[in-house]
Design goal:
This protein has five helices and no strands. The chain is an all-alpha fold. The termini are far apart.
Protein backbone atom coordinates (compact mmCIF):
# COMPACT_ATOMS: atom_id res chain seq x y z
CA UNK A 1 0.00 0.00 0.00
CA UNK A 2 1.11 3.51 -0.70
CA UNK A 3 2.22 5.58 2.20
CA UNK A 4 -0.10 8.50 2.93
CA UNK A 5 1.59 11.82 3.12
CA UNK A 6 0.49 13.85 6.05
CA UNK A 7 0.69 17.55 5.57
CA UNK A 8 1.17 19.80 8.51
CA UNK A 9 -1.29 22.58 9.01
CA UNK A 10 0.08 26.04 8.57
CA UNK A 11 -1.33 29.21 10.07
CA UNK A 12 -3.21 29.93 6.86
CA UNK A 13 -4.95 26.55 6.95
CA UNK A 14 -5.93 26.71 10.61
CA UNK A 15 -9.39 28.05 11.38
CA UNK A 16 -9.45 31.54 12.78
CA UNK A 17 -9.90 31.89 16.47
CA UNK A 18 -12.21 34.57 17.73
CA UNK A 19 -13.89 35.12 14.37
CA UNK A 20 -17.50 34.12 14.72
CA UNK A 21 -19.63 33.09 11.81
CA UNK A 22 -22.25 35.67 10.88
CA UNK A 23 -25.81 34.65 11.58
CA UNK A 24 -28.64 35.24 9.13
CA UNK A 25 -30.75 38.10 10.50
CA UNK A 26 -33.87 36.75 8.81
CA UNK A 27 -33.49 33.39 10.55
CA UNK A 28 -32.95 35.03 13.94
CA UNK A 29 -36.06 37.19 13.44
CA UNK A 30 -37.94 34.18 12.03
CA UNK A 31 -39.07 36.28 9.07
CA UNK A 32 -41.41 34.52 6.67
CA UNK A 33 -40.44 36.65 3.66
CA UNK A 34 -38.16 39.49 2.61
CA UNK A 35 -40.17 42.61 1.83
CA UNK A 36 -39.06 44.37 -1.36
CA UNK A 37 -40.60 47.63 -0.08
CA UNK A 38 -38.31 47.78 2.97
CA UNK A 39 -35.60 49.78 1.23
CA UNK A 40 -33.55 50.52 4.35
CA UNK A 41 -33.22 46.81 5.08
CA UNK A 42 -32.29 45.97 1.50
CA UNK A 43 -29.61 48.69 1.40
CA UNK A 44 -27.74 46.78 4.11
CA UNK A 45 -27.20 43.98 1.59
CA UNK A 46 -25.96 46.25 -1.20
CA UNK A 47 -22.49 47.70 -1.70
CA UNK A 48 -21.87 51.43 -2.02
CA UNK A 49 -21.91 51.02 -5.80
CA UNK A 50 -25.26 49.23 -5.79
CA UNK A 51 -24.09 45.63 -6.16
CA UNK A 52 -25.71 42.83 -4.19
CA UNK A 53 -23.33 41.68 -1.47
CA UNK A 54 -22.20 38.07 -1.40
CA UNK A 55 -23.57 35.58 1.08
CA UNK A 56 -20.27 35.21 2.88
CA UNK A 57 -20.13 39.00 3.35
CA UNK A 58 -23.75 39.55 4.37
CA UNK A 59 -24.01 36.43 6.54
CA UNK A 60 -27.33 35.29 5.11
CA UNK A 61 -28.28 31.66 4.75
CA UNK A 62 -28.71 30.34 1.20
CA UNK A 63 -32.50 30.64 1.09
CA UNK A 64 -32.64 34.14 2.50
CA UNK A 65 -29.79 35.29 0.25
CA UNK A 66 -31.87 34.22 -2.75
CA UNK A 67 -34.90 36.03 -1.28
CA UNK A 68 -32.84 39.19 -0.69
CA UNK A 69 -31.52 39.09 -4.27
CA UNK A 70 -35.06 38.74 -5.68
CA UNK A 71 -36.33 41.55 -3.41
CA UNK A 72 -33.50 43.88 -4.47
CA UNK A 73 -34.13 43.14 -8.14
CA UNK A 74 -37.86 43.77 -7.70
CA UNK A 75 -37.20 47.04 -5.87
CA UNK A 76 -34.86 48.11 -8.68
CA UNK A 77 -37.52 47.46 -11.30
CA UNK A 78 -40.02 49.51 -9.33
CA UNK A 79 -37.46 52.33 -8.98
CA UNK A 80 -37.27 51.99 -5.20
CA UNK A 81 -33.55 51.22 -5.43
CA UNK A 82 -31.00 52.36 -8.00
CA UNK A 83 -29.26 49.89 -10.29
CA UNK A 84 -25.95 51.68 -9.76
CA UNK A 85 -24.61 54.57 -7.74
CA UNK A 86 -22.77 57.43 -9.38
CA UNK A 87 -19.13 57.48 -8.44
CA UNK A 88 -16.74 60.34 -8.94
CA UNK A 89 -13.32 59.21 -10.03
CA UNK A 90 -10.46 61.19 -8.58
CA UNK A 91 -7.94 60.21 -11.20
CA UNK A 92 -8.13 60.17 -14.96
CA UNK A 93 -6.73 57.62 -17.33
CA UNK A 94 -5.95 54.31 -15.70
CA UNK A 95 -6.69 51.12 -17.57
CA UNK A 96 -9.00 52.88 -19.98
CA UNK A 97 -6.18 54.09 -22.18
CA UNK A 98 -5.74 57.64 -20.95
CA UNK A 99 -2.48 59.45 -21.61
CA UNK A 100 0.56 58.43 -19.56
CA UNK A 101 1.24 60.36 -16.37
CA UNK A 102 3.97 62.51 -17.87
CA UNK A 103 1.74 63.61 -20.73
CA UNK A 104 -1.34 64.38 -18.63
CA UNK A 105 -0.13 67.89 -17.78
CA UNK A 106 0.57 68.58 -21.45
CA UNK A 107 -2.84 67.26 -22.48
CA UNK A 108 -4.58 69.36 -19.80
CA UNK A 109 -2.72 72.48 -21.00
CA UNK A 110 -3.81 71.78 -24.57
CA UNK A 111 -7.42 71.24 -23.40
CA UNK A 112 -7.39 74.61 -21.63
CA UNK A 113 -6.01 76.31 -24.74
CA UNK A 114 -8.64 74.67 -26.97
CA UNK A 115 -11.42 75.69 -24.56
CA UNK A 116 -10.16 79.29 -24.59
CA UNK A 117 -10.06 79.26 -28.40
CA UNK A 118 -13.64 77.93 -28.51
CA UNK A 119 -14.82 80.76 -26.27
CA UNK A 120 -13.07 83.31 -28.49
CA UNK A 121 -14.70 81.84 -31.63
CA UNK A 122 -18.13 81.90 -29.96
CA UNK A 123 -17.65 85.56 -29.02
CA UNK A 124 -16.73 86.40 -32.63
CA UNK A 125 -19.79 84.53 -33.92
CA UNK A 126 -22.00 86.43 -31.48
CA UNK A 127 -20.49 89.75 -32.65
CA UNK A 128 -21.12 88.86 -36.30
CA UNK A 129 -24.71 87.87 -35.54
CA UNK A 130 -25.34 91.15 -33.69
CA UNK A 131 -23.87 93.15 -36.60
CA UNK A 132 -25.96 91.25 -39.16
CA UNK A 133 -29.13 91.81 -37.11
CA UNK A 134 -28.35 95.53 -36.84
CA UNK A 135 -27.78 95.71 -40.59
CA UNK A 136 -31.04 93.90 -41.26
CA UNK A 137 -32.94 96.35 -39.04
CA UNK A 138 -31.39 99.33 -40.86
CA UNK A 139 -32.39 97.82 -44.17
CA UNK A 140 -36.00 97.49 -43.05
CA UNK A 141 -36.27 101.14 -42.08
Amino acid sequence: MAKQQTRRRTRQDAPRRGARKKVCIFCTQKATWVDYKDVNLLRRFMSDRGKIRARRVSGNCAQHQRDVAVAIKTARELALLPYTQRTVSERAGGRRGGPPRERRAEVEDVDVAVAAADVAVEDEVDDVEVESEAAAEEGEE
